Amino acid sequence: MKTTKTHASLKDIANYVGVSISLVSFVLNDKARQHRVSEEMVRKIKEAAEKLNYQPNIFAKSLREGKSHVIGVVLSDISNPFFSSIARCLEDEAEKYGYSVLFSSSDENRERSEKQIAHLINRGVDGLILVPCEKSQSTVRAVLETGKPLVLIDRYFPDVHTNYVCLNNREMSRLATSTILASGYSHPGTIAYDTTLQHMLDRRSGYRQAMEDAGKAAFVSESLIRECDLHQSISSAIDKLLAEGVDSLLFATNNIATESLMVIKNKGINVPGELGIIGFDGGSAFDLFQVPISYIQQPVALMAQKTVEIIMDEILVGQRLTHQIEVQGTLVIKESTKK
Amino acid sequence: MKTTKTHASLKDIANYVGVSISLVSFVLNDKARQHRVSEEMVRKIKEAAEKLNYQPNIFAKSLREGKSHVIGVVLSDISNPFFSSIARCLEDEAEKYGYSVLFSSSDENRERSEKQIAHLINRGVDGLILVPCEKSQSTVRAVLETGKPLVLIDRYFPDVHTNYVCLNNREMSRLATSTILASGYSHPGTIAYDTTLQHMLDRRSGYRQAMEDAGKAAFVSESLIRECDLHQSISSAIDKLLAEGVDSLLFATNNIATESLMVIKNKGINVPGELGIIGFDGGSAFDLFQVPISYIQQPVALMAQKTVEIIMDEILVGQRLTHQIEVQGTLVIKESTKK
DNA sequence: TTGGAATATTAAAACGATTTAGCTATATTC
DNA sequence: GAATATAGCTAAATCGTTTTAATATTCCAA
């Protein structure tokens, strides 16, 4: 017959064996030697723990240590393939340290993200991993002030001194653009988000850099779009760019790429003949297009690994060096850029 | 100057105002009236709490109440679009109750999922939402025995009496198949996973039902594949089905569909002319194919809502009725089935 | 003037684990 | 034989809440 009592506690074991709670605690925390517990007692207590199926109460432990063994993560939207793959990798990495991960989706909304961060901190997370949204410098600074370990991922603020892990966005964008040029497209354009977020600025500036390097500074054709009504905006952005004589496009994110490809397909534009294309982030979707799409690949697993490494260092060791890591992307060339 | 002390406690407020801890607790938990705390005292305490920026310590609270206000979720793989969209909806629903969600990806591996479940229970989650993997009836039963609120989602076991929320798989599959037939395809086949999981059996049996109803029981062409080496298996599965004279296909999951479309594209097969197609679950990917793909749409948000509703009922009210919910899918017809 | 309500507040136990300081014996040293 | 180590164990505080039972004060009726 099962009682309502959920689990055996140290006390239960202590009573069962007929010793004090302290002794049981010592033994089960591998401090038996340190506290000179006799061999026989160790055996007895371990047996009892086994028999009573002892599981330490995590609430009590957390209360005592002031640690939850949970990391909080706020990202844009976990249903976005790029972020869900990051999520998966973060989960796997954290597990290696015995840590769990609590996710929140901010939808790029600053207020929402602030609430979520506050909520996570109240939840007692031991550290925070953030994909910060636009103009959230003050939010990030506020987190820094709490002293909670913090790592930004995918994005960073040049004017906020924090840990971060992100792609070498500028360089990858430059490389992609110069690759397009080298493939024989003379007028590449780009579509990016209309945001002040640094990773986006970097992706745009990489494009411009390549154009300058090619002596084409005069022909820089960028379309910036807001995230709302994405489909609508993309459609008119593409119209505009084509009217300007663009013969190839670099898409700054996977969402932009997906929407754009839809529009391009509907317009019946031929890729790569009429239009060359490079996207950010791969994904099976891009291989289903009329022709496989070239793309800039982000080493998501590595990014997650570095991120968790940094945060665990701070949590466990109390390390306080600032790590700012730029990981290298890979340009994956497929059919969409072969004129 | 900031002290290392993280946060103000009830004690700090009590000292500040010069009253007992109990009083502060009453006031801050809105039990002032019930405990006849004077108006003035309520004001003073609330002010002090505000001033000291009081945040209740969740560990202490959890230890006391035996509740964590966290729900654990074990699903196949959070980086799979279907599950990440479920994840997102679960997150949103749970938030309405002030609950957070802890995700784990089992990779359809039973042992892995068992560890994760144990880990989540140790973490003190108040309930579990599971996408159970094959042959994990005993695991599910074990969870039931702990008394933890439990809801299965997407899948269920006919021989285990649990809460679950899933699609009317059989009916949707039947409808999809009969729609294919009605569109003029005479020899539909299906590709599904080689598993004993009920949702997959249902999807297959729906197909067979439709074939029977159409008097075509004789021509039932199913290819079952294992999840490993998905791409390879799919390729040969399609070869086999085509050799059998299949002129249209129903894919039992989004992963199967994605892989299959890739193969079909590479083989240069014309859709819908040579081959009609219906998939499970939509996704922007399917719209990038040569022709938009018809698909069975699952009401993911509704499923998540029902799931969380059931589990919160058990957690908060202690309700112990068993809810077994089948939600209705929608057949979305696009070009891929228009012969 | 004594007893009983009603009001306003507090003390203390409990949740379960960790850890410091302390208490017995017995063993060792000079 | 007295002083001191040492081995083996326990008591009790602590983390921050919640909640029950108790206390103290006032007020009113009998």
Kindly describe this structure.
The structure is a homodimer of 339-residue chains. Chain A is α/β, with parallel strands linked by helices and 339 residues long. Chain A has 3 domains: 10-56, lambda repressor-like DNA-binding domains (434 Repressor (Amino-terminal Domain), Orthogonal Bundle); 67-166 and 300-327, Rossmann fold (3-Layer(aba) Sandwich), CATH 3.40.50; 169-298 and 332-337, Rossmann fold, CATH 3.40.50.2300. The first copy, chain A, has 13 helices and 12 strands. Chain A has helices at 10-17, 21-28, 39-51, 58-65, 81-96, 110-122, 137-146, 169-182, 198-213, 230-243, 254-267, 284-288, 300-317, and strands at residues 70-75, 100-105, 127-130, 150-153, 163-167, 188-193, 221-225, 248-251, 276-280, 294-297, 324-327, 330-332. A 6-stranded parallel sheet of chain A has the order 2-1-3-4-5-11, sandwiched between helices. In chain A, strands 7-6-8-9-10-12 form a 6-stranded mixed sheet, with helices on both faces. In chain A, strand 8, helix 11 and strand 9 (276-280) form a beta-alpha-beta unit. In chain A, helix 5 crosses helix 13. The longest helix of chain A is centred in the last third of the chain and has 18 residues, at 300-317. The radius of gyration of chain A is 26 Å and the shape is elongated. At the A-B interface, helix 4, helix 5, strand 2, helix 6 and helix 11 of A face helix 4, helix 5, strand 2, helix 6 and helix 11 of B. Chain A binds a DNA duplex (30 and 30 nucleotides) through residues 9-11, 19-23, 25-26, 29, 31, 35-38, 41, 56-57, 59-66.
